[in-house]
């Protein structure tokens, strides 16, 4: 039996990434999001257009995307209810958000220089990507136009060595992403079995 319900949020379990952008004064801003999906060498993110991140991204056209592993849950949670935007928009004030100018320090995270973009990567994140903004769109316009979907092209990727085998491929069992599942943090469990896609996929992409 299924029941017809109307959940307030539809967070069915997506990885948490921390986006790093550059503020107008040249300092970095970081913000966690979980509205993200990937295709080929690009990704699509969904974020409030009233965030400092989207303002920075539209102005500078650059960001880094840092995937949080499960052990970074406390740092991510310290970033919750913070914004790099001052004054804090009223709707966020009423939710308890506060303005934090240095979110790296606030979360206990370390900026590390990127190679191709201005925003720094986050040292503690095992997967770091440098990215350029391709396009941005108003998302769900009928709900007020306050949501932005942004397409990002990944142009450099840095992976923590401990996740790699001796052929520089990521070992899936070693990667434990932090997952936002409704409003609780999860991570991945044990392997069920390899996907049937693995063989043709490996042939097509890793045959060299
Ligand atoms: C785990 C987690 C996931 C989040 N996911 C999203 C998201 O997908 N989209 C979004 O707009 N905000 C998301 N947020 C809220 C933003 O981090 C928040 O709006 C923040 O104030 C943005 O910071 P900024 O204004 O400095 O850019 C998430 C927060 C947390 C803690």
From TrEMBL:
<dbReference type="Pfam" id="PF01613">
    <property type="entry name" value="Flavin_Reduct"/>
</dbReference>
<feature type="domain" description="Flavin reductase like">
    <location>
        <begin position="12"/>
        <end position="137"/>
    </location>
</feature>
<keyword id="KW-0285">Flavoprotein</keyword>
<dbReference type="InterPro" id="IPR002563">
    <property type="entry name" value="Flavin_Rdtase-like_dom"/>
</dbReference>
<comment type="similarity">
    <text>Belongs to the flavoredoxin family.</text>
</comment>
<dbReference type="InterPro" id="IPR012349">
    <property type="entry name" value="Split_barrel_FMN-bd"/>
</dbReference>
<protein>
    <submittedName>
        <fullName>Flavin reductase (DIM6/NTAB) family NADH-FMN oxidoreductase RutF</fullName>
    </submittedName>
</protein>
<dbReference type="InterPro" id="IPR052174">
    <property type="entry name" value="Flavoredoxin"/>
</dbReference>
